[in-house]
Amino acid sequence: MKQHIIYECEKCGKRSKDREKIMICEAAHLGLSVAEKKEWEQLKEKVRYKSAIVSGCKNEQTDKEFDDAIHELMDFEKLHGIEES
Ligand SMILES: [Zn+2]
């Protein structure tokens, strides 16, 4: 039995077996290249990570790192004109 994984664009619902195609499609909706979208996702991940650290250990240092991560993400979004809730 063969099993196929179908990838689907979260924005427009376009489907493909080719993961790369869908990654390009999703990035294009945001006006980003695939590499830029990856970078953006890493920045968002960093914010989540730093926020988890702050909730476990809140001090001046962790607060600052969380703040820096948020600003990095905001700068990236501003630069690329991304608005996401
Ligand atoms: Zn799409």
Throw out a few tags for this protein:
85 residues; mainly alpha; 2 domains; two-stranded antiparallel sheet; 3 helices; elongated; binds zinc ion
What features would you describe in this structure?
- The protein has about 80 residues and is mainly α.
- It has 2 domains: about 30 residues; about 50 residues.
- Helix content is about 65%, strand content about 5%.
- It contains 3 helices and 2 strands; from the N terminus they run ββααα.
- Strands 1-2 form a two-stranded antiparallel ribbon.
- Helix 2 runs antiparallel to helix 3.
- The longest helix has 23 residues.
- It starts with 6 loop residues before the first strand and ends in a 5-residue tail after the last helix.
- Bound molecules: zinc ion.
- The site of zinc ion has 7 residues, from helix 1.
Quick overview:
The chain has 85 residues and is mainly α. It folds into 2 domains: 1-30; 38-85. The chain has helices at 19-29, 34-56, 60-80, and strands at 7-8, 15-16.
What's the arrangement of secondary structure elements?
Elements: E1 7-8, E2 15-16, H1 19-29, H2 34-56, H3 60-80
Antiparallel strand pairs: 1-2
The structure holds zinc ion.
Residues 9, 11-12, 14, 25-26, 29 line the site of zinc ion (ZN).
